[in-house]
Amino acid sequence: MPSYEFGPSTRSRKKLTTAVFFLSLILLGAVLFQTSFFGFYKLFGAVPDLTLVVILCAGLFLGDRCGGVLGLAGGILLGALGSFGISLLPLFYFLLGFFAGSIGKGRAESFPGYLLFLSIALGYRAIMTIIYASMTYRSVNFLTLLWRAVLPELLATAILGILLFLPLRAICRRLDGRNVRS
Amino acid sequence: MERLFKNKFFIVCLSIAVVVCGLSSTFALLGYKNLARDVINTLTLPGRLIVSAIGDSSRGFSKYFRSLSALEENNEELKQQNEALTSAANDAEALRAENERLKSYLSIKSLHPDFTYVEAMVVGREAGNYQTVLTINRGSAQGIKEGMPVITPDGIVGCVTEVGLTYAKISTILETASSVGAYLARSGDAGILSGDYSMRAEGLCKLSYLAEDADVEVGDEVLSSGLGSVYPADLLIGKVESVSADDYNRAKVAKVAPAVDFSSLRYLLVVTSYSLE
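^ inputs. structure came back:
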């Protein structure tokens, strides 16, 4: 008797479940570390945006769908656990994850390519920080904000992004079912 | 662009993101409690405690290694100091007794018998870099309510600005939105203590509305006056770091260094009730 398969095969479904499980764990860990651990260990006096690095890597190495979903979940989680409420974060991180995947997938496998996308993401993050600070404070000195909040945050996130490039790429490749070494 | 808006996945996720952002912002503006925030905070509390404990223990671990090389250098110096220290031991004993006495003066319970409080641990700090907000592991289940003052034996920390079932957010006195009625212990001159964005990075806040002829000097202790009905009176806030005239030379403004060290704050007390007299 012939057998029919509806939807994704058992193997690909299992792969998808595993990927979603591990990515959720990584994302949760990133958010928890960002909101708790880095409160004690600030880099250059700022909390690095670890969630941004994870979402960016998910988008770049696993594609727009993965990046988008992870961005949406990351934004909600970070907003709920952070000090400023959910507000615009889900939209911000969703767009980051989705466009990282749709524009950058396949172009960021090498370190220079990744650096380019990390720089763009950091610029995007800087704009978001300025918007949030403007919403929080009625009168903000732009230079003070840039010097005291934006630049330290970007520098801290950049360092973490560079350090996590290889491990996150390896994890994403494994989750994607690729064993390519470059 | 046209292709993007034909992408069903993008449209669905974008719609979800916009709805979530819209709803949460609307709830926040209307002052409603965000249930999702409460649920996520409650569910992740064990994880946050673990990560917080990792941070705490690794701080001690790295401190140990950092101090190892310094210990070697200090060893020789300490040998020489040993003799001098032995002779100073008697004086130290006297100082220890004095220290104990001072500690008892500072003891909150003996100074403020009317206070009832809940001890809490800091499990999270600001996720953004332009706010000084702490998250503690106590919430409405433990009787915490919005507006309750938060203190340590060193002085005032801030007040509760958001309460969930098992967590609460504390806005410190460094926040620009905070204001505390305060007076100078030595001269009795009163003013309003508030956070200031440009001073926040240095861990300082601003004591303004001091009279033009106010008697204020560097090192003066600043205490809460009890005005504003959030903070109890006579709690230590900090010490005056510098004094200057305001922009119009009509009043004095003092920079105040809080008595509480926010960077190493781990345990604090939420004052759940106190007598107004």
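Chain B touches chain A through 43 residues (CB under 8 Å). The radius of gyration of chain B is 24 Å.
thumbs up if we can close this ticket
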